[in-house]
Amino acid sequence: MKKTFALLMLLVILTGCSANNIPTYLLYKEIPQNYTLENAKTDKLVVFENGSITSGQSVWDAFLVKTEKKESCVVRLAYYYTLEDPSRYSPEHYEEIKDDYPVLYIMDLSFDGTEFTLYSIEDGIEYTQQYRYLKQFTEDSPPISAIYTKMEMYILVNDNEVTWEQIQHGMFSSIFGDIIDHRTVYSKYTLK
Question: For the chain, which residues make up each domain, given as ranges?
Answer without folding.
Answer: 1-131, 132-192
